[in-house]
Design a protein that fits this description.
The structure is a homodimer.
Chain A: E1 7-12, H1 25-35, E2 45-49, H2 50-56, E3 60-62, H3 70-79, H4 83-91, E4 93-100, E5 103-108, E6 113-115, E7 130-132, H5 138-153, E8 158-165, E9 174-181, E10 187-188, E11 204-205, H6 207-219, E12 228-232
Parallel strand pairs in A: 2-8
Antiparallel strand pairs in A: 1-12, 2-12, 3-7, 4-5, 5-6, 8-9, 10-11
Chain lengths: ~260, ~260
């Protein structure tokens, strides 16, 4: 009988300011950890919302500069959306998945399937004509942040760049990992025995999404202003994944 | 600027024994909390795997007693599965969703969509002919456990009966809440303002699934033997949901 009580602690880092293009996220995160008397340790994970990564990377677009093409205009009419936003969505899209009034679900150029290619206007500063796109490459953003934190602290931390996605079958958004560095994204438990030694046939954890969803319990979605969450105690194996590992290949997906 | 550091702690309760039909889960959970010097408090949540709830409820079936019908035999040939298991899957199924070699995805009679109606042979005692079905009504199981814990401790805890589901688009299983009591299942944040006061249009959290996924980081899937996880610090609002709240109605689902 295992009498240990493994424990994971999830803490929202306080006082992360409103992020502007060029801001040094690593520095702001370290300031926030010091504010609560915490030092990052190897094995910790940090979950950072894609929104602040996008802001730091200056991924703003001014809708007044966007000229909707013919396809954007047609889709905008069908979905009753702003044709300029639809144009930007198409520029970020590999393939359109589903269209309905008010709904435009696409496979993003990064590989995942989400509404409006992750483009929205919530929590974006400036006028109503400013929108924020997802980071150009969240796996690169995650690796860069991890390197910066290691240089400044010596700690090897796992990084998840998180987004919030709806999904088929089930109500409500969950947290997903669109960028990962220094930790597993998908954890393959196939072949580990169950309690009676019978081999588990299929047991793959969407580990990055589990971590992002755990953090989502604290980040919320609205005005909480808690864009960075530290997760301590995970004890993940020394496997290094990428956010793209979590994308199911279309040819292995019965629901495209 | 919010200088609080909200924190959630997730702890796997140690020493939960192998569960047998008729076992008193509430008593075993309380013993496990006492083992680590913890007392349940109002506002805590407990995530309990559906597997041990099924075992306590004696939801075992002996495949030798199952007579596959014509449809089960046809589907078994198509999916290359045991026709007796397919027969049990069909008895638990509202509607077949997708069929492929090795794959049988159905809408369970409880409303969610999952592979094999949640029936499998892993971590089931007895012969290879014994399978375990999901609890008859996980929302009822959750409410009963909550009532028993309140009677014995005075604490009002939230309960999630969890399962582990694959999903379209993304690799790896995540935790889902198939039974909920004493806490929200879906958290509707629509209408809360964002940081700049612009109204958030759509922001619904699959709260029960977030909690189940957080717990899944500790329960694992194989021989960890950690079927009960305590979650402290959630600060969920006083809304009472049900596991079935998390099922998207087929008519509002673009991917059926």
């Amino acid at each position: 009988m295992d009498l240990q009580a493994p424990s994971v602690t999830i803490t929202a880092l306080p006082g992360i300011p409103f992020i502007r293009p060029g801001d040094d996220l690593a520095a702001l995160i370290l300031e926030a950890t010091h504010r609560i008397g915490v030092s990052l340790q190897t094995g910790d994970a940090l979950v950072v919302t894609s929104k602040i990564v996008s802001k730091a990377e200056g991924r703003y677009f001014d809708l007044k500069q966007v000229e909707p093409g013919a396809e954007a205009q047609r889709l905008a009419a069908e979905t009753r959306k702003d044709p300029r936003i639809v144009e930007l969505v198409l520029q970020e899209t590999r393939k359109i998945s589903r269209i309905a009034p008010g709904v435009l679900v696409v496979q993003h150029r990064l590989g995942f399937v989400s509404a409006n290619a992750g483009i929205d206007q919530s929590n974006v500063d400036g006028s109503d004509d400013t929108v924020l796109l997802l980071p150009a490459d969240p796996d690169v953003s995650a690796a860069r942040l991890r390197d910066q934190l290691r240089e400044r602290t010596g700690a090897d931390v796992g990084i998840v760049i998180s987004d919030s996605h709806g999904r088929p079958f089930r109500m409500g958004n969950i947290g997903v990992a669109i960028g990962v560095a220094g930790m597993p994204a998908v954890l393959d438990l196939r072949g580990r025995p169950d309690l009676f030694g019978r081999e588990l046939k299929i047991s793959i954890q969407g580990y990055g999404d589990l971590v992002a969803s755990a953090a989502n319990l604290l980040t919320g979605e609205a005005d909480e202003g808690r864009p960075v969450v530290m997760v301590r105690g995970l004890q993940f194996p020394p496997l290094v994944g990428r956010g793209t590992d979590l994308n199911r290949a279309p040819e292995h997906d019965l629901y495209r």
